[in-house]
């Protein structure tokens, strides 16, 4: 019985780092999901051109890779977390600026609409 308990504790401790690694940054993961949703919504509404959306999605991928590297050793340090938050804030500002700039694609033809001439 003692061997069974020891084996259960050993197996539990081996799977714990994998579990911690997958959810070590729930706030960052949620913000990534929110920002991806903002990009998708902007593209669907025409507030973002396809080119702007691709660029923003590429930058989101960069932040995801930064997060993966931070999690690689099993611990996300405070400095790594601060670096990720900084990158996310900067990306959030980029999304806002791109969604509210003069370029849009309301007719969804894949090109930026030209402003009307006076």
Structural description of this entry:
The structure is a single chain. With 118 residues, the protein is mainly α. 72% of the residues lie in helices and 0% in strands. Helix 2 packs antiparallel against helix 3, helix 2 (26-45) runs parallel beside helix 4 (78-99) and helix 3 runs antiparallel to helix 4. The radius of gyration is 21 Å and the shape is elongated. The mean pLDDT is 84.
Write the SSE topology.
Layout: H1 2-22, H2 26-45, H3 50-71, H4 78-99
Largest sheet properties: none
As a percent range, the share of helical residues equals: over 70%
**Shape assignment:** elongated
Number of strands: 0
Instruction: Decide which structural class fits the backbone.
Output: mainly alpha
Query: Strand share of the residues?
Result: under 5%
Oligomer kind: single chain
Q: Quick summary of this structure?
A:
With 118 residues, the protein is mainly alpha-helical. 72% of the residues lie in helices and 0% in strands.
Which descriptors would you attach to this protein?
118 residues; 4 helices
